[in-house]
């Protein structure tokens, strides 16, 4: 396992034939330059860095969970865990027109794709693909959202029929951050399932 | 920087859980988090953790000139810093409203409750006094910040020892710890803080709320008291109108907590003193290093097939004819068979046994021979009857009736025989299969 720091150039043999470049790596000409400190990973033509960070750096094409913080003109201002707020236009929702606007309030959460990360501007998100279809994106109703330091913008949204189940799933995911062994996770799930939530 | 805002869904779920007596850390509503208390290798230092909240406190002393108002009293200063390390919304060297509230309450609890004997800190009245400084640094924030800060400060004060001094006519001698044993502070009592969250306009209490829970609650009340059951401070964060009964209940909870924590603090201090007097090198804060550090050893994508989970809820129709099944069994027990399958199997078994029994019953006697013999017997009986009945016409009529009825009787027998043949042939076929 190789650990890279920002500014390093990746010279791994497995990275030469990889066509998909993932999180923490930027392409400058022919060079693959590291932008985040982390451990190098590769899998079937994909390379990325495993980064332990609480701050998200947006990349085009990432699916993220965003929190609505305010409404300004034709845009919603969103928190996706970046240094600056992100924006989403009213029209970037499925079936939305100038008259038929999505009804989002402060504190609601949406599932969206990052599609514009021009430097020195706010990242822009969208809830529709090229064919103006939602494909699972849009507002997330009910459930529970929490943060954990993994992948993309490090947010997970969970929904289950009862609160007790949500609490249990939340607990298992939180604990699994520090578990590598597969059997340990299964026993963790079993323990959690039989455990009573109320004290 | 800012913290991500609390989302509507989080708030709804947390409140719903709290109202049904559940919490995200598997605690009860009136249950505290575990407290971890560690004293450092340097005197007058302590780290306190309550859940994820972590505070370090350090006590130091220096000689200073007293104010003219209190010429023979020592001074205790409290300094709090909320660093961005604890919470990204904190700014360095700027307290904000939260920090101001914290520092004011700590001053109220530690200085104004007069738990430390300030008169013994005077060296020369009007000239020299000890100025004790308590530095409180918040390392991590997750609710009950005041409880943690107060506990850390009190432990550090208990642990602290000032250098010994002697007075000479024109000067003061300060001894190092190798020349004369340092002197601990005179502490009368230990005020312990307890944060109690309020829900439903104070109808429900949520003890020791985490940061997220606190954000969803209606407010909180902080009670500081000591083990002698004296209330040292009472602070309410929002303007919620509470009845005397509700406050009394909170105070009662805080008292039991204070007793337990006072015992913990004195245990930690005594343990440390024992180790020091045995010339054992104190562990200090090295024991607080977290065991859970980044574990991205071989964290590649992997699919995990979790054991199948059977839900307790089933449609009502099934419940009607199968009321008692797997209710108390562990739903994760491996190898459990589906209930529907069991039902089907049982039904088929029952039908089979019925069919077999009936088939066996018929098969005891040879069907064809019995049929023939039965017919013979019947013919004989009829013949006998006919023989016995002789002349009279009336009786002839009867015989005619009987005669006519005879074929009627024979027909069902034949049919029966056919049935029996069918059954046996079916059975033979089945045996072949």
TrEMBL record, chain A:
InterPro entries: Exosome_RNA_bind1/RRP40/RRP4 (IPR026699), KH_dom_type_1 (IPR004088), KH_dom_type_1_sf (IPR036612), NA-bd_OB-fold (IPR012340), Rrp40_S1 (IPR037319). GO terms for biological process: CUT catabolic process; exonucleolytic trimming to generate mature 3'-end of 5.8S rRNA from tricistronic rRNA transcript (SSU-rRNA, 5.8S rRNA, LSU-rRNA); nuclear polyadenylation-dependent rRNA catabolic process; poly(A)-dependent snoRNA 3'-end processing; TRAMP-dependent tRNA surveillance pathway; U4 snRNA 3'-end processing. One of its GO terms (molecular function) is RNA binding. The gene is Cni-exos-3. It comes from Caenorhabditis nigoni. Keywords: Exosome, RNA-binding, rRNA processing. The keyword Translocase does not apply. It holds the Pfam family KH_6. Belongs to the RRP40 family. This is Ribosomal RNA-processing protein 40. CDD domains: S1_Rrp40. Gene3D superfamilies: Nucleic acid-binding proteins. Residues 140-163 form the K Homology domain. The keyword RNA-binding applies. Its main location: nucleus. GO terms for cellular component: cytoplasmic exosome (RNase complex); nuclear exosome (RNase complex); nucleolus. It is found in: Nucleus, Nucleolus.
From TrEMBL, chain B:
One of its GO terms (biological process) is nuclear mRNA surveillance. Pfam families: RNase_PH (PF01138), RNase_PH_C (PF03725). Coiled coil: none annotated. The keyword RNA-binding applies. Residues 31-163, 189-256 form the Exoribonuclease phosphorolytic domain. It is found in: Cytoplasm; Nucleus. GO terms for molecular function: mRNA 3'-UTR AU-rich region binding. Keywords: Cytoplasm, Nucleus, RNA-binding. One of its GO terms (cellular component) is cytoplasmic exosome (RNase complex). It comes from the Eukaryota. CDD domains: RNase_PH_RRP45. Transmembrane segments: none annotated. Belongs to the RNase PH family. PANTHER family: EXOSOME COMPLEX COMPONENT RRP45, EXOSOME COMPLEX EXONUCLEASE RIBOSOMAL RNA PROCESSING PROTEIN. This is Exosome complex component RRP45. The gene is Cni-exos-9.
